[in-house]
């Protein structure tokens, strides 16, 4: 139960750093902007000093500003804060039931966040490949997670879960704040449609299972995100309860903030600066979404004839380009694709946001373009479905309607993967569709009215959407562990939990079984030491490292060395490997014994034992300088 204190610490500290921003921004804008400002300042200073020092100096500065503002009596926290608090409490409760940082790619996310927390300078060390840097992956989203961890004063395995709960809270507050002028019912409906809704597939699958007597099980929870063949089709609620601290998840609140800033009627130099900051952090977090957000901002600038908005969009490319130069990612390949989303699959995923736009934003002229959809169907079924809405968005931009700019960016996000892809169509659909979901739900809500027949349409869309949270949440969170400790599951694996806690206080290269036995072992227990300590392993998650670095020889050589280390009887051979990679700590726990049948006696002959508990051992080498 005590781990809940850390969630309270984050809530209080994050609210305090918001106070100086309330003078220049609305509450729903200031809440996330304060975190992005703190994270960006810590990031920039982190190239010269250790990350924790850069963070605490930046945090101290904001706290002093906050105390000064409070002293001056210029503090007014709006009632909108209740939305943040309610959503944050809900997701904290879910993570309190099942806090495990284990399945899917959570080890990777935890490893990157821990590597940032231990970074002496940026870029951080690659936790899965000792001696290399984390410059192949856009890690700013994990830096935001690290910032939330430090704001909560928690250990990383708790801070991860606090960060996971904070993201939907920031998202919901931002959407609510930008819609509240249309009334409480519309604002709350917009939040539920964008954040707390499932797709049409999940609605139909639920009743199919009920009427056929099939269980609402993990298949129900998962299948609605694999609707379009050979692609991934997440929507925000699934991403939030799935709880990977991935780039596309951290990007969700940033996207909504950009929408809120461009939808603002009164703009000042502070708003323009915030747009530049938000666009940069979006690029640094998940570059896939940057061009789509750029379309939204440029279109909004064109719609309201605001040259400064256009200038800000273009200016954001400068820091984005500098960030890109410091990365060492493999060159992105742009592809012309032949595959198309089938019409029935697309509707099963996108019915709710598309229907919301048709019903709530359509103009008389919209339906003039329906005949054009017939020939376009043979080019792309998705384009055919969305052509009348494209015309609506363009007409709206001509008529100076900001919501149309947001809708246009969402429509292009749906259409583009039918023609072009970056790296693969699977990932392009994955990243673009979740942006489209947000853009269309929010733009439709900006035109929604709670009157006459439209309120019944909104209720119907809410009913379709709410089935998934109602049915899938108990499936995803079926345990009651009553802690936010994401490492608690490790207590079942010999003494690994306590050994990793011991190593969290240490620094240096480790050797462990991190995934040397097959392409999918990266999704299992291997690599857990690097994941929860941030200490770089000789090799972990080999399949991912190969995908990131495209260097099979490097990855294969290290995997072979790890296998040799744990299976050889020769102290000389083990010492050669230790010296080769500068290993300081040797981990012998559940996974090493399971995979290699390694026994501690052999290691005790060659190295000094510094930790033993529950059948897990840590040995040190001579590389302790």
What does this molecule look like?
This protein has 625 residues and is mostly helical. The protein has a domain at 489-620: 3-Layer(aba) Sandwich (Rossmann fold). It is 63% helix and 4% strand. It has helices spanning 4-18, 27-45, 51-72, 81-97, 106-117, 140-151, 156-179, 184-195, 200-212, 218-223, 236-242, 247-263, 269-285, 290-303, 307-315, 317-325, 343-361, 370-376, 381-398, 402-415, 425-447, 454-476, 496-504, 528-533, 542-549, 552-567, 571-581, 590-596, 600-604, and strands spanning 334-336, 420-422, 509-511, 583-588, 608-613, 616-620. Strand 5 and strand 6 (616-620) form a beta hairpin. Helix 18 (370-376) runs antiparallel to helix 19.
Quickly list its features:
625 residues; mainly alpha; Rossmann fold; two-stranded antiparallel sheet; 29 helices; 63% helix; globular
């Amino acid at each position: 139960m005590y781990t809940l204190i850390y969630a309270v610490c984050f809530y209080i500290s994050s609210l305090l750093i918001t106070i100086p921003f309330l003078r220049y921004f609305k509450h729903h804008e200031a809440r996330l902007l304060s975190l992005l400002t703190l994270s960006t300042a810590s990031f920039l200073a982190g190239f010269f000093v250790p990350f924790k020092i850069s963070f605490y100096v930046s945090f101290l500065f904001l706290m002093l500003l906050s105390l000064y503002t409070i002293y001056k009596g210029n503090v007014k926290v709006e009632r909108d804060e209740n939305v943040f608090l309610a959503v944050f409490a809900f997701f904290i409760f879910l993570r309190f039931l099942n806090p495990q940082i284990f399945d899917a790619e959570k080890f990777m996310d935890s490893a990157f966040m821990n590597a940032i927390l231990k970074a002496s300078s940026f870029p951080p060390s690659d936790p899965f490949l000792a001696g290399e840097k984390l410059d192949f992956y856009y890690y700013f989203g994990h830096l935001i997670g690290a910032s939330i961890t430090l704001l909560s004063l928690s250990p990383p395995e708790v801070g991860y879960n606090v960060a996971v709960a904070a993201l939907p809270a920031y998202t919901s507050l931002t959407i609510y704040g930008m819609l509240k002028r249309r009334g409480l019912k519309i604002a709350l409906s917009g939040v539920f449609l964008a954040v707390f809704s499932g797709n049409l597939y999940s609605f139909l699958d639920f009743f199919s299972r009920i009427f056929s007597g099939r269980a609402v099980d993990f298949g129900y929870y998962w299948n609605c995100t694999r609707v379009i063949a050979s692609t991934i089709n997440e929507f925000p609620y699934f991403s939030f309860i799935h709880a990977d601290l991935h780039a596309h998840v951290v990007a969700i609140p940033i996207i909504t903030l950009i929408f809120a800033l461009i939808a603002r009627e009164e703009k000042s130099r502070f708003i323009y600066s915030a747009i530049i900051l938000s666009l940069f952090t979006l690029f640094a977090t998940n570059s896939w979404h940057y061009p789509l957000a750029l379309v939204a901002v440029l279109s909004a600038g064109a719609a309201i004839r605001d040259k400064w908005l256009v200038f800000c969009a273009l200016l954001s490319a400068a820091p984005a380009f500098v960030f890109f130069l410091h990365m060492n990612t493999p060159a992105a390949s742009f592809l012309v694709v032949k595959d198309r989303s089938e019409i029935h699959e697309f509707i099963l995923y996108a019915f709710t946001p598309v229907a919301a736009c048709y019903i709530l934003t359509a103009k008389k002229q919209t339906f003039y373009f329906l005949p054009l959809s017939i020939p376009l169907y043979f080019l792309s079924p998705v384009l055919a479905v969305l052509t009348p809405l494209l015309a609506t968005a363009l007409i709206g931009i001509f008529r100076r309607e900001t919501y149309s700019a947001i809708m246009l960016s969402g429509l292009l996000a749906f259409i583009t993967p039918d023609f072009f892809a970056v790296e693969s169509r699977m990932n392009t659909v994955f990243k673009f569709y979740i942006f489209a979901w947000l853009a269309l739900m929010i733009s439709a809500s900006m035109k929604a009215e709670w009157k006459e027949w439209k309120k019944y349409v909104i209720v119907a869309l809410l009913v379709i959407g709410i089935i998934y949270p109602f049915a899938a949440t108990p499936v995803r969170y079926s345990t009651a562990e009553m802690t936010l400790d994401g490492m608690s599951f490790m207590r079942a694996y010999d003494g690994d939990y306590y050994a990793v806690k011991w190593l969290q206080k240490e620094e240096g290269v480790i050797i462990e079984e991190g995934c040397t036995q097959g392409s999918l072992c990266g999704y299992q227990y291997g690599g857990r030491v690097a994941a929860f300590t941030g200490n770089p392993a000789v090799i972990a998650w080999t399949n991912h490292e190969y995908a990131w670095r495209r260097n099979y020889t490097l990855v294969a050589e290290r995997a072979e060395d790890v296998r040799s280390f744990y299976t050889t009887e020769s102290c000389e051979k083990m010492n050669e490997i230790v010296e080769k990679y500068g290993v300081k700590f040797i981990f012998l726990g559940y996974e090493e014994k399971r995979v290699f049948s390694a026994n501690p006696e052999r290691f005790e002959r060659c190295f000094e034992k510094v930790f033993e508990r529950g059948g897990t051992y840590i040995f040190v080498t001579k590389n302790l300088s």
